[in-house]
Amino acid sequence: MSRVELRSVSKRYPKADDLAVKQISFEIPDGELVVILGPSGCGKTTTLRMLAGLEGVTSGEILFDGKPVQDTPPAARNIAMAFENYGLYEQWDVFDNIAYPLRLRSVPDAQIESSVTGIASGLGIADYLGQRPGALSGGVRQRIGLARALVRDPSVFLLDEPMSHVDADGRNDMRLEIRRIHERTGATMVIVTHDQEDALMMADRILIMNEGGIEQYDTPRQIYDAPATAFVAGFVGEPPMNILSVSRSGDSLDGAGFAASIPYGLDAALVPGRQLVAFRPHLTRIVSGPAAGAAGGLVLTGQVYMVEPFGERTIVTVQVGQTRVKVESRAQESYDLDSVVSLLVRTEDLHVFADPAGSGRGERF
Asked: Whole-angstrom Cα distance, residue 191 to residue 179?
């Protein structure tokens, strides 16, 4: 397997005013599974294609085990790739599509048979091995492309949206199988996705990108519990963090159409001017009626705007001034629309970000 490193890597496309990828640097230790997560257009697929050698690097270095490879052709990088557009050979059956990279390496037929049937069984496509891809659904075709990448023994696996066309049940199975393969082989894997559940469930570490740059690179637990920027706070989590734009006025936090007392212990993190205060819906307690300020946390008062039951939990949206705040409550609790409620958040569950644009670092209390 390989250790992968990017040093100040940038990518600019011809005639483009802005860089698609902006001097990013990060390292993937040998044998880690890293997920690159971010919204459309953030530069994640471009980064993966530069790792694969399918896109040139405008500046910076890409290293495999300390050796620069940015000028090395894809075939010489010993990588396995699976991309969203499948890239299958329609004239071959599924077995031959999966077996193709093994036959290129002159692997014995018995080993090919064992490897192909094993990976196909794990991904739930063993029943399709004798069929041609053109007759199969998009989800099955995507699993075939993934199987063809995973059946190899490369230095690095590069997977671009490997589950985008798979239904919910199949997606869970594929997450488990990818994770099992990773743990069994100890392979270095890089997976690009826009789906945060993929990242949180599979990754050893997550690289979150936005507008061509890196917002945070950390373990799933740290990214969820301690987002480094307001962008990460608002991007990761379902529902994501509530983010309030506030300014300090004496002992009060003034927001858009609301005011709240500054929680004890939070004042040291607040500076003059506007800041962002963020908190997770499931760490927010909701009670009926107005509540007095609490020494241990933030108290907000508003009106119930929407109630959404989701079986074992209920998402309550509360209008606080001009801001809507989401709260995750127990399923058995019910609230009437437009009724007055109070929201209570412990000081240790609050995050403060340095500026309204969300470019500052975050703190957790």
From this structure: 11
Specify the pairing of strand 188-193 against strand 156-160: parallel
Token pair for residue 298?
């933030």
Which position has the higher pLDDT, 270 or 192?
Answer: 192
The single-letter DSSP state of residue 134 is G
Last residue of a domain, one of 197, 230, 263: 230
Convert the pLDDT of each residue in 309-327 to its tens digit. 988 889 999 999 999 999 9
Query: DSSP secondary-structure letter at 159?
Result: E
Residues 348 and 205 in one domain: no
Q: Is the pLDDT of residue 101 over 70?
A: yes
Q: Do 112 and 54 fall into the same domain?
A: yes
Does residue 281 share a domain with residue 224?
A: no
54-72 tens-digit pLDDT: 999 999 999 999 999 999 9
Which residue range forms the structural domain that includes residue 153? 4-230
255 & 203 share domain: no
| Cα 297 from Cα 348, distance rounded (Å) | 8
pLDDT tens sequence across 70-93: 999 988 888 888 776 667 888 999
Query: CATH no. for residue 146?
Result: 3.40.50.300
Name the strand (E) or helix (H) holding 348: none
Q: How confident is the model at residue 359 (pLDDT cuts 50, 70, 90)?
A: very low
Q: How far apart are CA 157 and CA 190, in angstroms?
A: 6
SS3 content of the chain, % helix, strand, coil (to 5): 30, 35, 40
Beta carbons within 8 Å of 326's beta carbon, 6+ residues apart: 239, 242, 281, 315, 316, 317, 318
Cβ pair 62, 5 in contact under 8 A: yes
Confirm if 299 and 289 have CB atoms less than 8 A apart. no
When divided into structural domains, the chain yields a total of 2
Q: Looking at residue 1, what is its pLDDT? A: 61
Q: Write the DSSP symbol of residue 136.
A: S
- Angle at the Cα of 325 (from 319 to 326), degrees rounded to 5? 120
Of the listed ranges 42-56, 58-72, 88-102, 151-165, the one predicted with least confidence: 151-165
